[in-house]
Amino acid sequence: MNPPNPPPNIQAELARERNRAAAERTLMAWIRTSLSLIGFGFGIDRIVSAIRGFHQATEISPVQLSRILGLAYISLGVYALIVASLEHYQELRRIQQQGDYFYRPRRSLSLTVAIALISIGIFAFIGILIRAFA
pTM score, two decimals? Predict the structure, then answer.
């Protein structure tokens, strides 16, 4: 005969639900951030394409830096969305596990995206600076 199952701990179940809701809010924030990065990169590319079309009659050479910058923002947005989705899935699996829920340190996606944005900004600044004096 199996021993009876202990009654569920309501405080632990509510804590799990709060953690799940927090994970959902975090994923939604990353979706908004990624969508902004992708939209910004796409906007840069469209503006540069329009300017190229306007200036082709005057034979001004197109600026490749803007296209690279736009693609960098789009790539960063897609990367952030993929990593945030994977982290969200892993977090939900940890919350659903039976037993105690312990904090596990991991790399910060926010810090990674911030460093990538700093790198893109430095690249853009140097590229614009070189074009200004060329």
Answer: 0.75
